[in-house]
Amino acid sequence: MDRGYLVISVTGGGVAMPILGAHVEVFVRKYRADGTYDSSVALADIQNGRFTDDYATDAVGKTPQMVIETPDIDASFTEGGNTPYSIADVYVEKSGYFGALFLGVQIFPKRESILPVNLEPYVAELVNNGSVTYVVNGNYTFVYTIPAPEAGGKRENAEGSEDDAVRPFVAEEVYVPENITVHLGRPSESAENVTVTFQDYIKNVASSEIFPTWPESAIRANIYAQISIALNRIYTEWYPSRGFPFQITNSTAFDQAFVNGRNIYDNIERIVDEIFNTYIRRTGFEEPLFATYCDGIQTNCSGMTQWGSFELANQGYSPIAILRYYYGENIELVTTDNIRGIESTYGGIPLSLGSVGDDVAVIQRQLNRIRNDYPRIPFIISTNGVFGSGTDSSVRQFQDIFNLAVDGVVGKATWYKASLVYVSVKRLGELTSEGQSSDFRVIDASVVLGRGSSGDDVRVLQYLLEYISVFYNNVQPLTVDGIFGNGTYVSLLSFQQAFGLELTGTTTEQTWYTLYGVFEAIQKTVLPVGEGQTFPGILQQGDSGENVRLLQRYLNAISVYYGDIPRLSEDGVFGSQTRNAVAEFQRLYLFSDTGVVDSATWYRIVELYNYISNQQMG
Asked: How far apart are CA 336 and CA 357, in angstroms?
């Protein structure tokens, strides 16, 4: 027997909200002599205490690393042999959130298995005029079943796969999307759509398709093919051009495997973070290759076979040599810097101690903002573009939290990971601040909005949908522009489907009631704003009263964890010391230093104060 490792990482609202004190229970199934495992647990087993190990998540939402006995690593090198991994079932719960049960988490020998858990705020019932408008399956736990990886399971026979012939396309250029929407079924099948980041999609696909114990050349070759298939679907707008509200399916007869809720692996995560924007194309062509592949056992295809790539890697083939063996000599690997949703493109030169310049200032500013939600990251005192020891410490802690190589070097993987996390936490911060502003209002439920509508009511609808999409990945994000176009239509339909409403694509009364109910439930659960915390109006030097005293109390609570903010006397007088504390807060978190408390400053202070208070309460 060998040993493998398991870590559960728990968040709420994308990567922006690590959940401290989530309760995690783990049951490792017993391995039988015939190479199989006993049956999984069920909800009743949780209540009866069948789980054997209990854990709690730390300040970055992670459990301690668990050591789990596994089969010998050689089992994963044999086609059709015994199950080459151990199996665990995991239950996660936190007050205010739906529970989540994961059946079939796979732990391979000599690898760290990472189970990313994104808990959804608890919205069991939304009541209007005494009638229940939404109930989740009669219980309050979401159940995810993780099947065997395709390399060790039964793959669908390919019925709808496309060859790599030149096809008309809609996109103007090849790009890596910030997010990708996956249809959990065949294209025309009625099934749920989920939206995840492109990198998380590829990590999931790779973990679903191959074994993480294979040689790295085989893993990389397969990941290049998986990236190319996804980018081909994006580039050709294959499904949207046919009227579907998604970019790809998880059907292996048409696309590639994706398992909602599955675990991933440390080496696959590292490789994807490094090469996610590199794809295969034929020499002289623009579009990413639709790089067909199959397991080579259950199904055959004209492209790469997964077990064949394993054998070639063992013979010393490089990733590009493996790909050319199957797809021909006229292919090349191309890297694009056209990555949507990031602030700055990687300059190509790794940053480390002694580096100077604008790129250093960018990473310093991003890490300081990310620190708001991940306080373990040390604060960088001066974002002056000089990579000193403080920046080195901050980079290393960031790398440790996000499963990157901890070397203090900001290479491509660390650069883009920081950019994407920064975008996520910044998006959430902006939404939560805007949602409490005096401009936000409740619209009469009789107002019907649909395609062609425009104006402030549409903007409120879009804001609600965008806010909710941060916490529910089956609600599609959109742009808040006041125009009810196709993006708003698709997002509204996804919301109606997610919450069991009639799929009208317009704002029915029940849709409005549910939108506001979910929005309010999220605020109460994740970022509650207490009584008296709404914006009291501009506060500045010379003011006095209870609102100033409240401001001082919030800043003092924050200063305990963020020592750069000076402590204040809570006397209700907005003097020079209070102004200096406000200005320092603004420099750290809003990148301005007016010393005047406007609505953006107030709600950012309230958000951080409430976040700290919630974490302290566990």
From this structure: 23
